[in-house]
Design a protein that fits this description.
Blueprint (H helix, E strand, L loop, with lengths): L2 E10 L4 H17 L3 E2 L4 E10 L3 H11 L4 E2 L2 H6 L5 E4 L3 H13 L3 E4 L7 H14 L3 E3 L7 H11 L6 E9 L25 H16 L3 E9 L4 E3 L5 E3 L5 E8 L4 E7 L10 E7 L2 E5 L4 E5 L23 E2 L9 H15 L7 H20 L3 E2 L6
Parallel strand pairs: 1-3, 1-5, 3-4, 5-6, 6-7, 8-13
Antiparallel strand pairs: 2-3, 8-14, 9-12, 9-18, 10-11, 12-13, 14-15, 15-16, 16-17
């Protein structure tokens, strides 16, 4: 007979787009719809969300919509509740460090979006405190669980590339200014004083993607820009965009490969997916996006000749081979939630922790400093 074990999860910031769509609906509620998370020992783990936020009407409406019964605007009371097992944070970055710190003190397991803090000192402090308190802790590193990057990792692990020479990433899309077309992202993202900026947002992603697939980042050179200096907020009022909306980074990797990644909210998309990584190696190359991955082996690499006086006679894009969907790929956020819940319930190994989150904060911090000082900076290895 199957035993059902309830795990109560305080979800702070769930009224935001990411917290609601990916973490609540497509992860925890999706787990409930499939009957819970089977642990393989006759036990099913049943996630029970406790919605937390500042807007009472939004929380109540969300709870009613999904048949949930527990929500609160009193974060301290929820954290103090001894029946709450896990604290999850998807609120604005500037409020995250204090809230996670309170949850650690209360003995809650921690699962959080990134960046985990506004600076490396705070991020390392959280990691040390969590380790000292003996609580489980994890940081969302969702892109590792996307089908395109899972295929790319399989190629890396299988030695497809030979010696990896370079990684080139293109990320971004046009975020409307908000005057004549509503913006797709909240206005705080474009105010530095509120914790906004594309470096703070995206460099933590690039750190774990590069670290997990190709090697630790050992140095960074970055140039940032605020291409759109004025935007309009959710109420149609103009405001000064004080945060960077584009970043151009060069990352030296342990082992010798070089990565270049452009990140921009002021670029119009002329690629198959909103983010793509091209990996070139001595034996082959690949281009991976969120879902798809194409490869070109050394044996099938064309031999183009540069001649600007004649039109191209071949379609270079058609000379790549699609990596098949020969596995079942679940939602990346849900897949990582499942691993973290198993880590909490069964103590299974899990290394995407607050120290990994601190590495992302470190790279963002050094990226901003590199841009401000106009020079390359080493990225020291950090440990607790």
């Amino acid at each position: 007979m199957t035993e059902r074990r309830t795990v109560r999860i305080a979800m702070n910031g769930v009224t935001g787009r990411m917290g609601y769509r990916q973490h609540l609906v497509r992860s925890l509620l999706a787990l409930r719809e499939q009957g819970g998370l089977g642990l393989g020992d006759g036990t099913t783990l049943w996630p029970e969300p406790v919605l937390v936020g500042r807007r009472e009407h939004a929380l109540k409406a969300m709870a009613d919509r999904h048949g949930l019964t527990e929500w609160s605007t009193d974060l301290d009371a929820v954290i103090a509740d001894p029946t709450v097992d896990i604290y999850f944070d998807a609120q604005v970055t500037s409020a995250r460090e204090e809230a996670i710190g309170k949850a650690i003190t209360a003995g809650k397991h921690i699962y959080t979006e990134k960046p985990t803090a506004t600076g490396l000192t705070g991020a390392l402090d959280l990691a040390r405190r969590a380790r000292g308190a003996g609580v489980k802790h994890g940081v969302v590193q969702d892109k590792l669980f996307l089908p395109g990057l899972l295929k790319l990792k399989r190629l890396v692990d299988g030695g497809f590339f030979g010696r990896i020479l370079s990684v080139r990433g293109e990320f971004g899309y046009w975020v409307f200014e908000g005057d004549w077309q509503s913006a797709q992202r909240p206005s705080w993202n474009y105010r530095r004083e509120d914790g906004g900026g594309i470096v703070v947002d995206m460099f933590p992603h690039w750190e774990y993607v590069l670290h997990e697939l190709f090697g630790r980042v050992t140095s960074v050179t970055a140039h940032t820009a605020t291409h759109i200096p004025q935007r309009w907020d959710e109420h149609g009022k103009p405001y000064a965009a004080t945060a960077d909306d584009a970043a151009y980074g060069i990352f030296q990797l342990e082992g010798g490969a070089v990565a270049q990644i452009n990140s921009s909210w002021a670029v119009r998309v002329n690629r198959d997916e909103l983010v793509e990584f091209q990996v070139d190696g001595t034996e082959g190359s690949a281009v991976a996006g969120l879902r798809n991955c194409r490869v070109q082996h050394r044996s099938s690499t064309p031999k183009p000749v540069w001649n600007p006086d004649l039109p191209a006679t071949e379609s270079f894009r058609e000379q790549w081979q699609e990596v098949p969907d020969n596995d079942a790929f679940d939602n990346g956020f849900k897949a990582q939630w499942e691993l973290f819940l198993r880590h909490v319930a069964l103590d299974e190994p899990y290394h995407w922790d607050l120290l990994a989150g601190a590495r992302g904060v470190q790279l963002a911090e050094l990226g901003l400093r590199s841009a401000a000082e106009g020079r390359r900076l080493d990225v020291p290895e950090i440990a607790l």
